Amino acid sequence: MDLLQFTVSGLTIGSVYAIIGIGYYLIYISTRVINFAQGALVQLGGVVALSFLISWKLPYALVFFITFFVAAILGIVFDKAFVGPAGRHSVLSSILMTVGGFLVFEQAIYVFWTKDELMFPAISGELPINILGVMIIPQALWIIIITAFILSGLWIFFNCTVYGSAIMAAAEKPEAARLVGINVNIMTSSSWALAAGLAGVAGILIAPITFAGGSLSAEVGIKGFVAVILGGITHPLGAVAGGLLLGITESLTTGYVSSAFKDAISFGLLIAVLALRPEGIMGQARREKV
Amino acid sequence: MSRIAFDILYVDGLTKAFGGLVALQDVSFNIAAGRIVGIIGPNGAGKTTLFNCISGLEKVTSGTILFKERNITRLLPHEVVKLGMVRTFQTTRLFRHMTALENVMAGTYLTVRSSLFADLLLLPKALRAEQKSREKAMDLLKLVKLDDLADLRAENLTLSQARRMEIARVLATGAEILLLDEPSAGLDDNERMELVALLREINSTGMTVVLIEHDIDLIINLCEEIIVLNYGRLLAKGSPAAIKNNEAVLEAYLGVSDEL
Amino acid sequence: MSYNYPLFNVHELIAGYGGIRVLHSVNISVDRGEPTALVGVNGSGKTTLLRVISGLLHQVSGSIEFLGKSLDGVPAEKRVAFGICLVPESREIFANQSVQANLRLGAYSWLSSSKMDLYKEKLDFVFSVFPILENRRKQNAGTLSGGEQQMLAISRALMAQPKLMLLDEPSTGLAPLIVREIFRVLKELNKTLDLTLFLVEQNTRLALKIVKKGYLIERGRIMFSDSAESLLEYVNKVGFTHSAVENK
Amino acid sequence: MDKRKNLIWFVLAIVIALFPFLGVNTFTVQLLTLAGIYATVALGLSFVLGNAGQISLGQAAFFGIGAFTTAQLITKFQISFWLALPAGGFLAGLAGAAPGYLALRFQGHYLAMVTLCFGLILQILFLELPSITGGAGGIPDIPSPFILGRAIDNSAGAIIKTFHVAWFLLLATAWLLNNLLSARSGRAFAAIRDDTLAAEATGIPVAGYKVRAFIIAAVLAGLSGGVYCIHTHYIGPEIFGVGSSLEFLIIVVIGGLGSPVGAVVGSLLFAVLPEVMRSYEEYRLLVFGCMLMLIVLIAPGGIWGLVSNRISKVWKNVKNRL
Q1: pTM for this one?
Q2: Helix, strand or coil for residue D168?
């Protein structure tokens, strides 16, 4: 029964990785940038949501939406004012810029909110529920349900709406997108907004488990990146596959080996997978044109 | 002019496929040492892919490439250069933060030896190498008429200057055959004539020159032999006069004249 | 058919990439409904001209007028709504999306929930032109064959309801049979729709078969323009080098 | 020309030798020692990023390997600091080959991520292998090699000697690197940075040079790690994590990528500025983060790039007037 227990907790954390990973995917396909600041946005999501929940006493569902929009606007501004202009210099510049962004967001939280790890209320109850012999805390159930909800929403958005289809078109072939009348700038901003918003939402989901404001949620953000690279950053389902795989691997490592080396093993797994299959598990190889 | 009559480059049954797409199919030809040869063909005919395969940048699907009677089919790009075959690219590729002179000096990497250790400690060996490399590079810059711009940063060179600097850089490697990918692209008529003169001069020293070109006038003017590719296949090979009147080549360029 | 007024005018156009000039003082005038071809060997600036007309590339100087209005400062995505559509040489279809999604994106510039009837009508029209696309409507566009991709690229442009369709080397990389089929359709479309074709081709003989007028471009300069018949005669005479200087 | 250059190095050596005796207080000397240690790491990182065109987001790991190796050799095995220091540099260099080989397969964002993961793995190992690194407690009581028989001493003499070790190490490595950059190998690195494909087509063995670039940077980080442990007398795992890697990145970018002087300028700023504005300690990283973003946006050459531009302009004006 242990195995099942570990798998469930792996799926829980893996879901969060998947949501964050989708953000990396969207930004990467739209602007060819890996947003190293994504982890700080996860952290930010938790803190912002906590303020709305505790100080403003807003209802939980509303807080989800507000946090999403706050993070989304931050994402757009960060791209338009900083990452975009820096990326024109070189890849290195865009990496340095997003790393700088990570630092600034994280430090801003420490300075203007708190350096402490804050308790974050779960969506409902703390007592574990027994389902088929597996003990599940309600928050884990919520995480899995909300992730499923978000993933199917995204699927419908990208596959059935013109707007979603236009975002994908602008990401795949910006010039061709312009030729059918799509404003590519608006589409890349939409990608950044969606990616940042999802990171913020992931921050709320994970905060009851990792606390809000601490560096743990930032680490979850980095894991989201590991997940998407593992799954393949060129494939729409890469983040989901990579996230779930990473989550389960971690939880099995914690259960059967040691929790101390859990992260070392996931990072090692990433390097090993990349060395064997640089495009990730689901990705397609790309060819550089000379 | 005396010519050594051996094939410096020999390509046999070269095939290159990208997944299902066959970019080159069973291409065979030979190039005699000291020749100046042009490769032409419509867009997508596989010209650049051919260069990529010969220079070791792309792995060949099947077929053999012999250079100076040595099989180079599976060698890496810098190993091919070491044997004496260098190439340029369709777009100019400069070391843009270096001066023109330093660019050409970088080209002497293989011909003027030193070691990391000697370089670190600035041993006499490193200083001598530096001196020799500088002289050689300066000579080559004179050849391509860029000696007065030696200290200009490469990113500030005009297109025509940059292309000539690239030629100096590949010559610095001690090559015996130059593969030039569209050296005249973007040049005006005067600059083209200068380029033709330069290539003739380089060829007159015994260097084999192979160039891909869109400018058919330039090719007919300059080359002794022309290779025509179409849809990844060798369509024709021969003297400029023969190619000009070849019906198959005409059709490849102009299309068939039957009714719709 | 009478061609009473100009559809678009290119006046003293200079353009290029970075410091490199590709087009030198190009002048072109195309009348409404009059199919026109631009021929010349590759590297002569044909694609660059199409990129400037469609707005993907800004000119250094000179102007383009479309239906009497200057296109200065109008970005590519807005020119689509004016009725200018480019079918690029590499087709540029959205390979990760279905055929139908590609066609829907073609209608992006005017599509709204109130115009669903028009959308259906256009879709049916496109499927009647290229029936094979209807069979493949659910398929990922990336899995289509080269010829089908070209058909999709043309159809996607048709969905935008263009007045001017710029076609860049539609024959590239296609088998002769398919090329002929596509050219037959293009000729048809020009006749039946209020659509003007501006065709760029290396396959000179074929291109001159379906147009009324042709321009010969060489090294970024228009060498001359004439009726398709005389141009064809000239090209047949001088061969593929095209050069007026060399062949005199 | 060469003579004038040699003179500069000579003058710098004299300045370093005399500096602690010019009546500066020991606190300042210690602060500058730290800056010198940072600068050596920054020198290597700046070389990887700016001269060789590669990316490393895990540089603190090599700093850590050097520090832990040196500290353990001194404390556990009673080996002389002068042998322990190169051993630390050697091990760090060995470890540096790993990301070097990874750089053969990955570029750009992927390489950034892979080196970041490499740094994260070592950060965990530093913490979780107490038998080697002392675990969370770290290694305390690292004796200064300049005072025999006593464990910790902040005597002025030892402080000055540590300052000399740090800055002469910096001077020596800067000299070596400067030599390298002006010679054949330096051009090979620069060629790879500017255009890897063209470098390969010019006959430069790109793979070998990428690995060498990472090894060189790792050795420099390892050596400064060794000096760091006799400067602070205590090392713990938290100093060698990804946070520190980012701080080294800040130093390098703010100072000026690819320039040895830039690395020194950045390090001085990073060590000294927080002391100047002590009452705003919690804003330190926020300020540096903002500086990093601004520099990348408006002055990619860093502070030294701005200053040297200014100097060369003034110099031209002066020349023109004469």
Answers
A1: 0.89
A2: helix
